[in-house]
């Protein structure tokens, strides 16, 4: 079968990632283990930048969506590749600041930013704040008084574009919690208010219509609708849109038959549509921002598990239990997400095993803790390794402590070395913040009602 994400087979048939034997990585760092291929990440970052440069578009920026996966080491890597950072919480911003990421290249998103988060972003002097709703617009006007100058803002728009993906990750329809509604006139009214606010520097609009998209058409329709809004905003306020942020959402390969559009194809189509719409509406070309997350890091990630118990029932696929599950990858349980699974036998020197119908299940106390519903693997045995491809996005970042399982280690590999960028949690980490009844902690005494 085809391999991707830097996976390969050496001359002896051993599965490798960036030249490192998967079995060696598992022995060295333990399992479950998330392995990130540094060369794949850098390659995708450069691919986006090269695709935009090839269009000849005058002004653009590539910004990574941190919610897909974030680590301090990744912040440093992205800065080296001249990729910006899109954060959606005070915590993500805090990590970026701790890593020394340039604040001017940070864009702060989120549909319910607190006053404290807005103050944090303003004091940090982030490059843009994407305002999501009227409540936030009012909060930011109040907070902007503490800024050294007008706060650069974009307005998030719900353009009413329905992308073909799971309903949980559709974010551009009218019926969404995100953004100012376009159809009802909210977006235009928000633009009027932002343009008239002395403490705000209104730059333009942002839209993100969904994730794991395999068609360019919804992106193009979004461009057309936002450019129409830009024309109307210019006529109404006299302020031209100088920036257009089209978000991310390009799909990746999870299964061998998946065929997402190439980065180059999507970028060329978007730029052509922006140019055409700007010319038709007599608008200046805006600074163009793209925000890949999954499509930058997803295929660069591989998760390695160790097989434990195996339950075989005649006539049914074998239940192959691994030492992780929905605590380190909730996507199959949340979205019915599908993954490609490979088996790495650890017996050594044995005869080839017959293929067997399997389902890969986790160790969490839930019947829904299924990582792969069906796959055919060489008959698994306890101690073997199971490898899931394309786990770089929305696995570790969505991991939990359900059943009090510690979160796995994350290792960044290239041809020269493998290094831990997030250490494996220990049981003592699970107790952080807990207070026994005997502890001297702050206690709110119950008082009689006035």
Question: Would you mind describing this structure in some detail?
Answer:
The protein has 11 helices and 21 strands. Strand 7 (106-108), helix 5 and strand 8 form a beta-alpha-beta unit. The strands form 3 sheets. Strands 4, 14, 15, 16, 17, 18, 19, 20 and 21 form a 9-stranded mixed beta sheet that branches. Strands 5-6-7-8-9-11-12-13 form an 8-stranded parallel barrel, surrounded by 6 helices. 27% of the residues lie in helices and 23% in strands. It has 450 residues and is an alpha/beta fold. The chain is globular and about 75 Å long. It has 2 domains: 7-37 and 299-431, Lyase, Ornithine Decarboxylase, Chain A, domain 1 (Beta Barrel); 109-292, Alpha-Beta Barrel (TIM Barrel), CATH 3.20.20.10. It has helices at residues 22-29, 38-55, 72-80, 90-98, 115-124, 134-143, 186-195, 217-237, 263-280, 294-297, 331-335, and strands spanning 7-9, 15-17, 20-21, 33-37, 60-65, 84-87, 106-108, 128-131, 151-158, 180-181, 200-206, 243-245, 287-290, 301-311, 318-322, 341-344, 355-361, 370-378, 385-389, 409-413, 418-422.
